[in-house]
Design goal:
3 copies of one chain form a homotrimer. Chain A is an alpha+beta fold and 343 residues long. In chain A, 19% of the residues lie in helices and 31% in strands. Chain A contains 8 helices and 11 strands. The longest helix of chain A has 16 residues, at 64-79. The radius of gyration of chain A is 20 Å and the shape is globular. The termini of chain A are far apart. Chain A binds chain B through residues 28-34, 36-42, 44, 47-51, 60, 100, 187-191, 193, 197-198, 204-211, 213-216, 219, 259-262, 284, 314, and chain B through 1, 3-5, 20, 22-26, 28-31, 33-34, 77, 100-101, 103, 105, 133, 213-216, 218-220, 222-223, 225, 227, 229, 232-236, 242.
């Protein structure tokens, strides 16, 4: 019996099956410090225990995206080792904050299957849920990927395309228990702009840029125990380049968005996202945002803001797609999220 | 209203105003581990809880310079985002050790203003103080920077140049409460040389060198939440290089100085410092020291030593300035500090 | 008196002397997080407190090799600063797990001396023991290095070559107290292969590869406070390259071996090892293993497996030596270890 993991191929997935992903992971202050070293993350709620307490939490949670990466990383050996493309995200919700000391595990349910017409690949939809050591769900999201078939002759499964919400309804967002922005300190948070200061349709150029290095994206991707070979092994691609984990670009864009969205303290919803173009070391990542929607929440002083967060490798801000409807070559990421702000 | 932070310009400062800097930061063992990964730091007091206890402390504090960097980093968005040059430091004192679990904030008082004769820039002096979550000051220092004016027509403020001590009087140094070197273990500390073994005027070549990488200085600078663009964005300078944060050079030189000054366990005073020349990735940093002064302290077994700590990019040790009185091109840093040693 | 450490030369060692190494080090979750960022480490026992508890431990210990590196790093200033070559390891045993909060120290006993016939160098054998803050030995191993003489005229010591076990007898392996694999969760661990599924003589190609960067190996080597100049200073070698610490290759190979040996959870014995060829940044490290032996243990559900772990810079897996009996140029490491697996 072969001892190494060949990954799953398209014909290996069954609709409705649940995959328990391997390697539980205990988070500590070390992961937080590394997150702050890898990204220019400055949101006060994840940076300071004291600030988090002033907002009704027990201590500063781990960055929302760090929790996402840990959960995502666990799914890679089972979901995307033989993936040709990461096609999309939907219905992502952060359900409970992650704190140093928590141990995370992940499971994925196969909720959709569709063989491509070429017969060589297919699309797999999974709903992945991360749990903490108490069995509580900490986050959940749908991802779909295009996966190779090992055997092109394998019969096609019945096509099932899940019906996914194009956007999470504000009422379905989970606000961390106890969160209260009524005593929010805008000075310590770094910017005066409150929820009411943002208008739907407004765009923000986050101005700053970071030129990324091989060592950095590999440190990050390994930290999340993501095993996709193409991020680490320069001998795999003909051009000798290592593809940067898309999540690295997400975290970089989110951290850059502090400058203009310092008060968008927590990400609670992931409505969708596209890794529009691949990213490689040497790229200078920049970011811009567009306010897509706003909603009230039941938590005191807390508003929700829906943002398009775009990462680019240059070009003018606010340009997204060409006349052909395709992403411009300099667009790396087009993410659609819900975040929480003081009203 | 523009949402991003443009930074302050010279005309935005008012003498006597106090600026509360944003983004409080909780320190953990993660920051300590990263400090030890980024610099060849080996001073036993910051490396070992047990060693620190044998010296009368409760546990190993975070490296003195790490505390400095965290405080310094907070000031960047308000003080040096539009700085043309970092001109100097004075009257820096470490007032209380920082421990894992502490949350740091920073404020700066504007203590001096002087418009330059060209009318386009001015010098701003600030006294920055870092506080922990108990409201206790952990360190304080004066820094002055040359800052651009946004509007050259803005009227010049009344010139106020603060009178700064050229060197901190030994009696003004704050010795950590409980510090006691009478049972000091020189073997565990790594060198036999005590305070009495160093003579004023003595010079020490620290021998070792470190060739610095882009990924490293960016990891460090982000860890301190320093937002100065020029350290991260390779597209800003015409030569496509990223300027290394001067504090990275300070920490590298200090760590290299272990070899010859292993028993200079804590930095308690920053008398002055100049970033003599810019540093870029690929440079091999070396360091040398000169004993400038010595003083006794009231703490048992503890002596103070005043050191000139010089970082270079090569060249012969102990050469500092040319016949023209200017720093030699290979000198990166000329720092003047007080440290504590076992007598 | 010269203040810097020149390192010891061959004539400075005395048979039977014990060297107490400097700079005790307290480990935290930060070191664990960095270990996971630097290497694709995924063994569940070191990744998850919950998984470790399910195996009878109190929490996830620090990776066995991280403990080794910390102990090894302490010995460098006294043992290998003037080493010409690192010749071998033997009789290495992990005696007690290391946990966040532990403080490690190290001592080495000189157990062998042999001057080389050229009169310019000699071989020094040391038995190094690492201790925690309770004075308990956490690991012990023999290492021998070739060291320069400072004075070629210094008389040769009496030759003493220690008799070393070619392999640690299974009964001498120390199983962590409480370790119990009877309730082992193979799904969470990542692979179904148990001790009984491996046959002596079996070889495993670990498939994955990592292209190493300068920043990474320096971060790792500094984290272990290893002071060997050649890892950090690009000006030392004529070719301008920095030699990668051999332990970095060991940890990389071990982490890569997860893919095929995910259940070889703990390393408890180091029978021997050779750094067959030097490694430099830009190399893509791959790994393969060979099962050399198997043994039962007294612990419930726990078997021991003896593995040859080979790191390469390419080439076909399972090729080790040429017809001349010498290591092939692509072989970086040939390590002989005992690990523990669920039976």
């Amino acid at each position: 019996m072969m001892k190494t993991n060949p990954g799953r191929f398209f014909e290996d997935y069954r609709l409705g099956e649940t995959i328990a992903h391997a390697v539980p992971r205990t988070i500590s202050g070390g992961e937080r410090a590394l997150y702050h070293a890898l990204y220019p993350a400055r949101h006060a709620l994840q940076s300071s225990d004291e600030f988090a307490r002033s907002c009704g939490l027990n201590a500063a949670p781990i960055d929302d995206l760090a929790a996402f990466h840990v959960v995502f990383g666990k799914t890679v050996p089972d979901v995307s080792l033989n993936a040709v493309a990461n096609l999309g995200y939907a219905e992502g919700r952060w359900l409970k904050s992650v704190w140093p000391g928590d141990t995370l595990t992940a499971t994925s349910e196969v909720i959709g299957l569709k063989q491509n017409s070429n017969g060589k690949t297919g699309v797999v939809w999974v709903r992945t849920t991360g749990h903490n050591q108490h069995g509580e769900a900490v986050m959940s999201y749908v991802r779909w990927v295009m996966v190779r078939k090992a055997n092109p002759e394998a019969p096609a499964p019945e096509t099932t395309v899940p019906k996914l919400a194009p956007v999470i309804a504000p009422g379905d967002l989970v606000i961390p228990r106890g969160l209260d922005f009524t005593g929010y300190d805008f000075t310590l948070a770094g910017e005066p702009h409150r929820w009411g200061d943002y208008a739907v349709g407004e765009t923000i150029d986050h101005v700053d840029g970071v030129t990324v290095e091989e060592a950095e994206h590999m440190l990050a991707t390994r930290l999340w125990q993501n095993t996709a070979k193409v991020h680490f092994d320069a001998t795999l691609r003909e051009d000798g380049r290592r593809l940067i984990y898309g999540g690295h670009v997400i975290s970089m864009a989110r951290a850059l968005s502090f400058n203009g969205l310092a008060n968008a303290q927590m990400i609670v919803g992931l409505n969708g996202g596209a890794h529009a173009n691949p990213c490689f070391a040497g790229t200078t990542i920049k970011a811009w945002s567009e306010v897509l929607d706003k909603a009230e929440t039941a938590a005191p002083g807390v508003g929700a803001i829906r943002l398009r967060l775009v990462a680019t490798s240059g070009g003018a801000p606010f340009a997204l797609k060409g006349e052909d409807g395709k992403y411009l070559p300099e667009v790396l990421l087009d993410l659609d999220i819900w975040a929480l702000m003081p009203i």
